[in-house]
Specification:
The chain contains 11 helices and 15 strands. By secondary structure, it is an alpha+beta fold. The longest helix is centred in the C-terminal third of the chain and has 17 residues. It is globular.
Amino acid sequence: MLDDVRRLPDWFRETASAADSVYGRVGVVLVANVKGRTKPIDDYDGDSIITEFLSSTELDDLLAAFEQADVYCEAVVDEEGFLDWLRERRANFPRQIPLVYNLAQNGIGAARLALVPGLCRLHGLRLLDSDGYSVTMSHHKFHTSVILKYFGLPAARSWWFTAEGWWPEPPPTGLRLIAKPTHDSASIGIDKDSVFTMNDGVNTHLERRLNLYKQSLTVQEFISGFEVEVPVFEAAIPRTLMAVGIQLEHRRHLGDEFMMYEQVYSDRYEFYDFAEENSECAAKTKALAEQAFRILGFSGMARVDFRVRSDGTPFIIETACKPHITKHSSFSFAMCTFGSSQTQLIRFLVGAAAKRHGLS
């Protein structure tokens, strides 16, 4: 527990308390890909989508948190398991109202996280958090950047590199850039060769990466400085608790360093309160994250990621509509800072869903 434990704000406690109003009526169906139990239906030759899956320990921790929150929860392994649940187990679900919490996204490419929400809509089931449209949008880095830019938010300048070339045009020569697979998370496809300077020979390099990851690339201006994640929560209006800094080997100012696949896969990074470095910028990232949550139509909880220049100028680089709330996550770090736990995150999710669906 950190020394400067804070008190959870009223808006958080009020939403979490709504979980009490549906006790005994509502249960959660947790759909997740699990390492060692889910077989990838498609994968890459290099980085594996398995890094996006939960470990057995993380799944057990989540189920324990639901139990401690007095919320009935059934775990269903992957999308095929959810189809079996619909056919064979739904009728015996021991609560009147199931809420589906989907963390499964097997395979590669666009819209794979929307498969379970689509089935839920078809079968009249309510979701614990974001709907199929929002999760699809969030997993398209280029489109998300364009939308946020349109609404005046400081998203990092972005271009789209496809099999047909650049869209809308090539970046300026000499600009330092980072290329990312458009539809992936957990730093899949991010390595030391992801950052480069725009020049005449770049297309050949990017075509190799496009073929390796079987999808278009989102190419962003590379921002030297700090990396910050802001957890955002659904309330009457979107709210945040804190801006969480990312440090690598205890270095807070990352300069030209960035999060790569190997570091994310093995959890080789730590968290800190970014307000300790720059309280004014931390407040600004929180406000921007709340706006992004609303613009993109997220529900439940989401995360907005930033790179921040040394002068305190923030740029949105990605969003996550299905952020990890495992013990090694910025959400859990924020809860720990406020003297709370993963159990309260679960209560908040259920309470927010109860309010959203008119159940409380």
